[in-house]
Specification:
About 55% of the residues lie in helices and about 10% in strands. It has 21 helices and eight strands. Strands 3-2-4-1-5-6-7-8 form an eight-stranded mixed sheet, sandwiched between helices. Helix 1 runs antiparallel to helix 2, helix 5 runs parallel beside helix 6 and helix 14 packs antiparallel against helix 17. The longest helix has 21 residues. The structure holds guanosine-5'-diphosphate. The site of guanosine-5'-diphosphate has 17 residues, from helix 5. Its EC number is 3.6.5.4.
Length: about 450
């Protein structure tokens, strides 16, 4: 699911890599490509429009961060906007203050309601609740039986009309189930309702009657993510016909485009609460907008890295540093120490590199990277006087010995640090480009 969207978005980001800064034309072109990606994935048009407007505004606006390069910048904005259309915060179930909590499931036939009932019951049971499943789908032959099978698999009780009474009144069954739950000490009631193949007035009325009879804390609209644009229409019909408090996306394991399902939250204003991604009981999870967004972006921990970089590098500092780097000869050991510390603040260097896309193949190289090297280098610089850090040329033999003793290393380590520093500074002066430091690329683009 969402593979096409992921691929397209990643192409957009790849195209931005290596760009020094984004011109208004670049931003327009990027926005256009993102728009096509979303439309191809079946995201509803009004949602796409809103999304693109936000991305454009933010990519042009003042919040553009000096700590990030343009590709990272766009990834960050797209990620945050995706989280936004997916609902922002993770929404948890609301529980009744007294008596059993009632969750009613609504949706078209085949959406995955009965399967979800089992998954939800198992999920709640694992959390220490005592749920009961209620068969209020008396329309479909075999529906009661199917729920019983599901209940057995999930290891939870099922409340159903007595055999021979199968064509009874689903509203009455639902109502009686609350009494039953109270008597049998079930604290959660999950009511499975009938679905039709298409939306019809009878079905809506029946669902509304069941709703009125059981007064649910939550009405979950269950929608098959594979149905495409129809998901939005169905959601709107259910919203006006029955109303719902949350959405469950099912069949996210399918290979369809899925964008319509992503629009449901924006179109109806109700949060996506759970996601189903398979036929087995355990193929189910609470829906986290942020995790889904990063899955869609296929960026793994790149997003974490971006956040950390932003937290760690103070924008003004970065700008100053970039200036010094460009000039080369103004770059001192003191600056070098600042940078080492900034890098160390981001966590173990191995983790940091591991977060870069493609780092998987670099495992062996990463194992060689040693935080202790960085720490040792920092210790050597700390043993220097301010004058020495400012102008390393004055570091003669006796100073080197003092520094080595002060930092607990060999004189040869001090020598090698000083040599490497001069070497690096020479290179900087030659390249007028920064060393890939934040701000450095942009300046010279
Ligand atoms: P209902 O009519 O809304 O109660 O839908 P069902 O629960 O009977 O599900 C309809 C079909 O979809 C069944 O064959 C389920 O096994 C299947 N199904 C439900 N949820 C998922 C899911 O998340 N992934 C996949 N692949 N199939 C699902």
């Amino acid at each position: 699911m969402f593979d096409t969207l992921s691929d397209r978005l990643n192409k957009v980001f790849t195209g931005l890599r290596g760009k020094g800064r984004l011109s208004p034309a670049d931003i327009d072109a990027t926005a256009r490509e993102i728009r096509i990606a979303l439309l191809e994935a079946d995201v509803a048009l009004p949602v796409v429009r809103q999304f693109i407007a936000a991305v454009k505004e933010r990519a042009t606006g003042e919040e553009v961060s000096k700590a990030l390069n343009p590709a990272q910048q766009v990834i960050k904005i797209v990620n945050e906007e995706l989280i936004q259309i997916l609902g922002g915060e993770t929404r948890r179930l609301q529980f009744a203050k007294t008596g059993p909590t009632v969750i009613m499931l609504a949706g078209l036939q085949g959406a995955g309601k009965t399967t979800l009932a089992g998954k939800l019951a198992r999920f709640l049971k694992d959390q220490g609740h005592a749920p009961v499943l209620v068969a209020a789908d008396l329309q479909r032959p075999n529906a009661v039986n199917q729920l019983q099978v599901v209940g057995e698999r999930a290891g939870v009780a099922v409340y159903a009309p007595q055999p021979g009474n199968g064509v009874g009144d689903p509203v009455a069954v639902a109502k009686d189930s609350i009494e039953f739950a109270l008597r049998a000490q079930h604290d959660m009631v999950i009511v499975d309702t009938a679905g039709r193949l298409g939306i019809d007035a009878d079905m809506m009325r029946q669902a509304a009657d069941i709703r009125d009879a059981v007064q649910p804390q939550e009405i979950l609209f269950v929608v098959d993510a594979m149905v495409g644009q129809d998901a939005v229409n169905t959601a709107e019909a259910f919203q006006s016909g029955v109303g719902f408090t949350g959405v469950v996306l099912t069949k996210l394991d399918g290979d369809a485009r899925g964008g319509a399902a992503l629009s449901v939250r924006s179109v109806t204003g109700q949060p996506i609460m759970f996601a189903s991604n398979g036929e087995k009981l355990e193929d189910f999870d609470v829906f986290h907008p942020d995790r889904m967004a990063s899955r869609i972006l296929g960026m793994g921990d790149m997003l974490t890295l971006i956040e950390q970089a932003q937290r760690t590098f103070d924008a003004d500092e970065a700008e100053k540093m970039a200036g010094k780097l460009a000039a080369g000869n103004q770059f001192t050991l003191e600056d070098f120490l600042d940078q080492l510390q900034a890098i160390r603040r981001m966590g173990p260097i191995g983790n940091l590199l591991g977060m870069l896309p493609g780092a998987g193949q670099m495992k062996e190289a990463l194992a060689q990277v040693d935080d202790k090297d960085l720490d040792r280098t920092a210790a050597i610089i700390r043993s220097m006087t301010a004058a020495e850090r400012e102008d390393p040329k004055i570091i003669n033999g006796s100073r080197r010995l003092r520094i080595a003793n002060g930092s607990g290393v060999k004189v040869s380590d001090v020598n090698s640090l000083v040599d490497r520093f001069f070497e690096a500074r020479k290179m900087m002066m030659r390249m007028t480009g920064g060393m890939g430091l934040p701000g450095g690329n942009r300046r010279n683009a």
